[in-house]
Specification:
By secondary structure, the protein is mostly helical. The chain has helices at residues 16-22, 59-71, 75-92, 99-127, 133-143, 145-149, 162-174, 184-202, 207-217; strands at 28-31, 53-56. It is 55% helix and 3% strand. Strands 1-2 form a two-stranded parallel sheet.
Length: 230
């Protein structure tokens, strides 16, 4: 059963407390950017049953820093881009394989490329001086090595979370149009509507038709069975 969906959750402030509340009870991999509010999810001793949250890095975010350095003619930026391009090209050959097979192929073909990339970033960072776009790109890669390598642990994990970024882009583009909702409650309601619309698009369903059918049913539908309408 395909259970993919999109969720927009409103928060007055982007804090660790909100992140803990949002992901309370969740176990598994969480792919995100390197914002430190997510670090709280991995803190503490590992559980005996192996459950918990493992943060997974985003290679698109890593690439973005090297791209900015390359645009400004830093050799480090160009070399980093070429290495990341090779990682993507190699991984793309296994994209349609079953997760277990993809994991094995990644271990054989993608892991050596990633390990070579991180060996180079650490060596280059150790001799780099000053603070510029090149050292920023190298620093990001070095600091995120553990999280970026985690994509190798499960064949279901993509190299990046651009799919989520694309869903968020419509909100970012239009946010000035709805900057003043009136209250936090109104913003939470809007986030729920955005979640439904984005999930419909993910499954190639007409959002307007879906909402029309849902609104016809809701007055007569048992409250405890609302998830059946998802």
């Amino acid at each position: 059963v395909d259970t993919d969906h999109v969720l927009f959750a409103y928060a007055e402030r982007h804090t660790q407390d909100f992140v803990k509340k949002l992901f309370h009870g969740f176990n598994g991999f969480l792919q995100c950017d390197a914002h430190n509010v997510y670090d709280v999810l991995e803190r503490g001793p590992p559980k005996e049953d192996g459950e918990g949250i493992s943060l997974v890095g985003c290679w698109a975010h890593c690439r973005r820093y090297f791209f900015e350095a390359a645009i400004c003619k830093y050799p480090v930026g160009i070399q980093g881009l070429m290495s990341i391009r090779a990682i993507y090209a190699t991984d793309d050959a296994f994209r349609r394989m079953p997760p277990a097979k993809r994991k094995l192929m990644r271990a054989e073909h993608v892991r050596p490329l990633m390990e070579s990339f991180f060996a180079w970033t650490k060596q280059a960072r150790s001799v780099a001086q000053g603070r510029d776009l090149a050292t920023k790109a190298l620093g990001y890669a070095v600091n995120q090595e553990l999280q970026l390598l985690r994509v190798l642990e499960d064949g279901r994990l993509p190299l990046d979370n651009t799919r989520s970024e694309r869903s968020l882009r419509k909100i970012v583009v239009g946010r000035k149009n709805w900057m003043f909702y009136g209250s936090d409650t109104h913003a939470e309601a809007a986030a729920a509507i955005f979640s439904i619309i984005a999930s419909c698009r993910l499954h190639v369903i007409d959002p307007q038709q879906y909402l029309d059918e849902i609104l016809r049913l809701l007055p007569y539908w048992p409250t405890e069975r609302y998830l059946e309408l998802a």
